[in-house]
Amino acid sequence: MAIQKVFSVNPAQPDLSVIEQAVSALHEQKIIIYPTDTTYAIAVNALDAIAIQKLFDLKDRPTDKPIHVVVDSLQTAEKFVIVNREAEILSQKFLPGPLTLVLPKRETVPDLLVGGRKTLGIRIPDNQVCRILAQKSGIPFTTTSANISGGKTPYTVDEVMKQFLPQIEQIELIIDQGALERKPPSTLVDLSVNPPKILREGPISNSDIFSVLGE
User: Dmax of the chain from CA atoms?
Assistant: First the structure.
């Protein structure tokens, strides 16, 4: 990849000109790499089936595996999912943070994104790049680890580029905030079922989730 496509940013105060380039790329069906509060991730416009297919192809990911999205707030999430009381409670306690809330999706969400399921995972990461990108873009964008499907979880841009070297020209832009703290992927909670179900335990423990929910 040409070096000019990798942009270093201050994680506390990211360069808005870099964010604007990333926003433009998302609206043009292009692929970007960005940091989250857990790993480096791949973003495309989560409402655009053509862009989503590019993402599946890049990762060599089976299309029956759903992909989650980043939004800037739970209020924005309501455009794409049906937010219930449990989501509101967990959001107040843990978001922004390393938590994915799986909720019933609305019709505007492409079936390809969710592997034909009726649910969508919502993320509001505790990361300034993510939050500003979500606010400026005005769209939900994908959040899936920036690796080949089944590959090593990336915490640096070098780790991303090693995995995607053969396909590197498919990536429009990389936002580099340096090495991330090596955390596991976000805790994944299915709130579309009763009682809620932990699909993956991450930085937020199962006991923390159910303690807050009072179950």
Answer: 52
